[in-house]
């Protein structure tokens, strides 16, 4: 893993890169897909449980991975629009690395967990629409994500998380960024969604309303709701278990990973 500093209009942010090295035995170049990971953390920190462990799982499947340390509210400034601008800058930077690291630019996708999922969902709505994109980022974006993955994601800031309207205003005083489902459009990308019905932090209706809106727009999606399991499961195995907190292990919910890989095959991101 290497940390790379990027800039958006003199605002610095970090990404962690997990590059796959070329296999010297191969007689021809192999280009790999790439995933950008947005960890959760309630917009106040980036959860390590949803960063490196996820990156390494994708790497084991032949996918380059980047963990994006997006804008938080710790300095008293809102998350939006800077987090979306940081995402756009990261996508443009990826193009500059495509030759060096053998990246398949047609197979770049985003995955978000909890609060990080809100940023991914907003990107899939506001940043796929040419008109609203111009309001957020006034430069060309060189790489278009082909798909998104939402893991127990915050979708609508008025639907249970945060539970205080003032906290929603800290995330963004502009309500344009609150309800990600409302800005889905014909250009939005196929999405894999999973959550547990018993999620005690982000109500499961967040995932349901997003899938419902995609369905109304005839956008491709796959939705999996597991009966039980706490918020923040990550891989839901011992790999991401907080020591002494067995509630982070749920091998039924852990099936989301194999389901997600199968879906990536359906999207032609991974070979069938």
UniProtKB/TrEMBL annotation:
Residues 28-213 form the BD-FAE-like domain. It comes from the Bacteria. Keywords: Hydrolase. Coiled coil: none annotated. InterPro entries: AB_hydrolase_fold, BD-FAE-like_dom, GDXG_lipolytic_enzyme. GO terms for molecular function: hydrolase activity. Pfam families: BD-FAE. PANTHER family: AB HYDROLASE SUPERFAMILY PROTEIN C4A8.06C (PTHR48081), PEPTIDASE S9 PROLYL OLIGOPEPTIDASE CATALYTIC DOMAIN-CONTAINING PROTEIN (PTHR48081:SF6). This is Putative lipase esterase (Putative). The lineage of its organism: Bacteria, Bacillati, Bacillota, Bacilli, Lactobacillales.
């Amino acid at each position: 893993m290497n940390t790379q500093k990027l800039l958006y209009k003199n605002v610095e942010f970090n990404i962690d890169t997990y590059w796959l090295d070329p296999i010297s035995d191969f007689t021809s170049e192999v280009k790999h897909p790439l995933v950008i990971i947005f960890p959760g953390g309630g917009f106040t920190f980036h959860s390590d449980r949803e960063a490196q462990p996820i990156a390494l799982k994708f790497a084991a499947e032949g996918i380059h991975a980047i963990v994006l340390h997006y804008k938080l509210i710790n300095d008293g400034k809102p998350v939006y629009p800077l987090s979306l601008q940081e995402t756009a800058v990261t996508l443009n930077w990826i193009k500059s690395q495509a030759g060096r690291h053998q990246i398949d630019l047609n197979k770049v996708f985003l995955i978000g967990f909890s609060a990080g999922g809100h940023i991914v969902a907003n990107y899939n709505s506001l940043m796929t629409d040419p008109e609203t994109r111009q309001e957020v980022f006034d430069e060309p974006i060189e790489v278009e994500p082909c798909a998104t993955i939402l893991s127990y994601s915050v979708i609508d800031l008025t639907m249970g998380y945060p539970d205080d309207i003032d906290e929603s205003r800290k995330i963004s005083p502009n309500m344009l960024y609150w309800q990600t489902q409302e800005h889905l459009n014909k250009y939005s990308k196929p999405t894999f969604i999973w959550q547990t019905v018993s999620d005690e932090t982000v109500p499961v209706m967040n995932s349901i309303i997003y899938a419902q809106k995609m369905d109304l727009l005839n956008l491709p999606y796959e939705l999996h709701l597991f009966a039980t399991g706490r918020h923040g499961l990550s891989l839901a195995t011992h790999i991401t278990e907080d020591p002494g907190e067995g509630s982070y292990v749920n091998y039924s919910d852990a099936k989301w990973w194999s389901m997600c890989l199968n879906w990536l095959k359906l999207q032609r991101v991974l070979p069938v």
